[in-house]
Structure formats: C-alpha cells, structure tokens
Amino acid sequence: MVGRRGAAAILAVAVGVAVGSVAGCAGRVHAADGTTVSFEFAGRQREYIVHAPSHPVYGPLPVVLAFHGGGGTAAQMERETKFDRLSDGAGFIAVYPAGYERSWSDSRGADTKAGAAGIDDVGFVSAIIDRLVADNHADPARIFATGMSNGAMFTEDLGCRLGGRIAAIAPVAGELSQSAVATCQPPQAVSVLEIHGTDDPIVPYAGGPVRITSNGHGGPGAVPVSSAEATQQRWRSVDGCAAPAAVDTLPDTAHDGTTVTVSVTDGCRDGSRVQLYSVAGGGHTWPDGSQYLPQAIVGKVSRQFDASAVIWQFFSTLRR
C-alpha cells in the first residue's frame, strides 16, 4: 500500500511533471526561455510564459498554446516539449499557461483542484488569446492548443467550448470525459490530432476512471473518460466527417518495443481533419520526450516519432 507521502510524490510526477515553477509577480518578467506575463483574471493573478520566434517574422503569427499536466508547471511544459525550438524555426508564438494550483478545470469537475474551485479556465484562455492578438501580433485565425494529461483533457474541453476561436487541438494522453461526449458541439469545425499510448497506466486508452487525479489525494477520479476510439468517433461526428478513416503504420525506426498506428480522417466539414496516433506499448508519456519516471510507474516513452514536431506539422496546415 502506498502511504500518503508516497501517493503525493507519485501524483506530482505521474501526470508529466518535473520540478520547476513560474515566477508569480505582476506584469512581465524575463524568464530563462521566454517572458512570463501576469495579469488579473476573475479576481486572481494568472500567468503564462510566451516565447516569440527568435528571427523576425512578418505578418500575424500563429500561436501554439501548450498546457501542462496536473501537478505540472508552465516552465516544465516549456522544457519538456521544446516548442520554443520549433517556434524559432517555423515562426509561431509558443505559449505556456499556468494552471490554478497546477491543475486545469476540464470537464471532469471536482476531479481536479481547479474544477473543485470552480475556476473559469476557458475564460482565462480566451483572455490570453485577446492579449496575444493585441500585444504579440497573433493571428486570430491560427490559434492552436495542445496539452498533456489533465492539460490534454482541458485541451479537449477547449475544442468543445472555445471552438469558435481555436482552429485545432492536439491532446496527448488525455481523452474526452464521458460526460463531455454528449455535450461537445463547437460552433465551428475543430481539427483534432490525438496521441495516446495503449499501455497508459494513468488515463486508460480504453476509457474508464482516471487513476490518479489532482483533487483525489493520489487516488482515482469519479468521472470516467471515454476511450481513444470513442473520442475519435465523437470528433468525426462533430466535424461531419463522411469518409472512413485511412489507417497506416509508421516504420519501426526506433526498435524500442513500441509501434505506432496512424488513423487519418480527411474530407470533414470546413476542411477539418481528425487523426489518432495510437502508440502500442506507449505509456503516459510525451513521445520522444523524457522518461520522467520509471516505466513501472508511467509506462514507456516511444521514440518512433517526435510528438512536438508532428503536432506542429499538423497545425501548420490549418486555420479557422
């Protein structure tokens, strides 16, 4: 049996967390790799890290919002995903928001600390987008969102509830909750790229209760998630995809015990697309990211593809 102290330690890292925090002062401060912006929203100081491309880019810029997992930080998400490097090469703005008490209010309600506190995280993200458009020359037609674990499930929620502002989402290791499947109906089509390991020990690939939650004292949540396939089916329905999915397998270049099947559904409403990277043998991890805990706790990191590069490649062809 895991003690209280052990459960807290497992929770802190099992959702994709490394040690690190974001400065909490008002206004703007220069961080190691970006600028931390702090502002008041709904009576609380909220913040995000923004990284502009290192080389001058002309015209409005696309934005990638990257949401950390439960227990994580914006700075950790910045380090782990390496979107800053892609930003410099491709010319987009990389943004890493910070959650309330290191969590996001997704569609699972009180399973997360932010949900239990009634935090309006969708409104917070909408306010960030407003600021990016006003202050950072962001292109409102090319706003994209990705995330890990609790951040991925929040990304799903953003697609459902903020689909009029976000062109595409790319959740990693986080599905739609079963409660959200019936209610998810964005005003516009939202392209979706899902990435999920079949051996994820935290957020089950086949659906069911999330096994470690930020408001559950290290225990399972009360609101189950849908399976990866059911989540895909819902997004195909939302986006009016008529054609069947085309399925292919990536070449085994890493020989690491994982294999990747890619399901692609094109021809959806308004040019949207729905895709799933199903990582057989993959765990609760970011493909080609760090093995932040032993495989016995979080499962295996696949080296068959770079999740960040695949996500940006997907986003780069899309707009609202």
Automatic annotation (TrEMBL):
Q: Which Gene Ontology terms cover its molecular function?
A: feruloyl esterase activity
Q: Which GO terms describe its biological process?
A: xylan catabolic process
One Pfam family named in its UniProt record: Esterase_PHB
Where is this protein localized, as stated in its record? Secreted
Name the principal localization, coarsely classed.
secreted
InterPro entries given in the database record: AB_hydrolase_fold, Esterase_phb, FaeB/C/D
Q: Does the keyword Lipoprotein apply?
A: no
Q: Which GO terms describe its cellular component?
A: extracellular region
Query: Which UniProt keywords are given for this protein, alphabetically ordered?
Result: Carbohydrate metabolism, Hydrolase, Polysaccharide degradation, Secreted, Signal, Xylan degradation
User: Could you name the domain of life of the organism this protein comes from?
Assistant: Bacteria
* PANTHER family according to UniProt: FERULOYL ESTERASE C-RELATED, PTHR38050
Question: Would you tell me the protein name for this molecule?
Answer: Esterase
